[in-house]
Design goal:
Blueprint lengths: L2 H6 L5 E2 L3 H8 L4 H27 L15 E5 L9 E5 L8 H21 L11 E5 L8 E3 L4 E3 L14 H15 L7 H23 L9 E2 L14 E2 L8 E2 L3 E2 L15 H8 L1 H14 L7 H10 L9 H16 L4 H12 L7
Parallel strand pairs: 2-4, 4-6
Antiparallel strand pairs: 1-5, 2-3, 5-6, 7-8, 9-10
Helix pairs in contact: 2-3, 4-5, 4-6, 5-6, 6-7, 6-8, 8-11, 9-10, 10-11
């Protein structure tokens, strides 16, 4: 799929903290918490509208030069304003900054680039060496991070409910993977295709963390955003792929609503049809495949997911059953029928209640 098609159709503005979490915080009796959550929601709404307008205009990136195996990273500082990209503070190959947030963003961009290159032979987000840009210190106590279709943006958090959004490398990988999806299957950000879009980002975000920490499937925590929740939140992360629905249970933020199987599928009009909620189902399927196969998750389980995402048969409106069928076929194509990989896929999709037929 060419880049111009991808950018003109199905624009996606993707935040790592889902709206249902911020909606809860906006109802807090603590006026500061409520105000900051409301401010973040309003900012996200404005950015989402801008992203749609950009897509309608048909703005597309310039064609990249022939890709190399080296990343091209630039980190900017918004200095607590909202104009992007901000002031350049670190470029590719520059020495460490005195600002730890800048260094974490730079390292996270590099970890993402390396996993896609070494694991799957992909050169950057678009497979053509797209420069990786990130802006830190966005807004004032902004409680989110996002991919806007062209670059990464990180808030500092409020220090209460959320910490600096560069602290979790899987969050950085999650958001950048939205870019990979944008340039490949281009999954529409609504309903089951939107939940698959979110799940792709959680899967590869987790793989990026596991790769950078040299963890096996057994050693991984399978959490998305571990270390991101503030000191006053009862929880361990934003989501759990191992046990969807258990990442947090907090007086202010509520209980993690993610289902692990189709029995708990949530029908809702909010959050584009529950894309951040129902993503727990394909997330859990990947966890089952990875742990069934064991070892390094990116080598077999991750390869099957990457083949499915980039193979050309996954349509923008694909549902869970489509992905289950295509991922199982991808396992057979790469590893053969009846083997451990094929069996792991069948077990996983059966366990989460997604049919393979049809």
């Amino acid at each position: 799929m060419d880049a111009s098609h991808t950018h003109r159709h199905h624009p996606v503005f993707c935040t790592v903290v889902p709206p249902h979490l911020l909606d809860k915080a906006a109802l807090s009796e603590d006026s500061r918490r409520a105000d900051l959550a409301q401010r973040t929601l309003e900012r996200d709404s404005l950015l989402r509208t801008r992203r749609r307008v950009t897509a309608v205009r048909g703005i597309v990136p310039a064609l990249a030069a022939p890709a190399s195996d080296d990343p091209d990273r630039t980190v900017y500082d918004a200095q607590h304003r909202t104009r992007l990209p901000g002031t350049k503070v670190r470029g590719e190959g520059d020495p460490l900054s005195k600002d730890a947030t800048v260094n974490r963003a730079y390292a996270g961009l590099g970890a993402t680039y390396e996993l896609f290159l070494k694991g799957f032979g992909r050169r950057s987000i678009d497979d053509s060496g797209l420069p990786l840009d990130a802006t830190v210190h966005y807004g004032e106590e902004y409680n989110n991070a996002f991919w806007d279709g062209q670059q990464m943006v990180f808030g500092d958090g409020d220090g209460d409910l959320f910490l600096d959004f560069t602290v979790s490398v899987d969050v950085i990988g999650h958001e950048l993977t939205h870019g990979v999806t944008q340039y490949t299957a281009n999954l529409i950000y609504r309903g089951q295709s939107g939940a698959l879009n979110e799940s792709m980002s959680d899967v590869f975000g987790s793989l990026i963390k596991q790769y950078s920490l040299e963890q096996s499937a057994e050693e991984a925590d399978w959490l998305i955003g571990a270390g991101l929740l503030g000191p006053n939140v009862t929880g361990v992360a934003l989501r759990s792929m191992k046990a969807p629905g258990t990442a947090y249970d907090d007086d202010e933020l509520g209980k993690d609503p993610q289902p692990a199987t189709m029995d708990g599928y949530v029908n809702t009009h909010s959050d584009n049809g529950g894309v951040h909620i129902n993503s727990g189902i394909p997330n859990h399927a990947f966890y089952i495949v990875a742990t069934e196969l064991g070892g390094k998750s990116w080598e077999r389980a991750g390869r099957i997911w990457y083949d499915t995402l980039t193979g050309g048969d996954l349509t923008p409106r694909a549902n869970f059953a489509d992905f289950a069928r295509l991922s199982t076929a991808a396992a057979v194509t790469r590893y053969g029928a009846g083997g451990a990989e094929h069996q792991a896929l069948q077990k996983a999709w059966s366990a989460v209640g997604v049919p393979l037929a049809g």
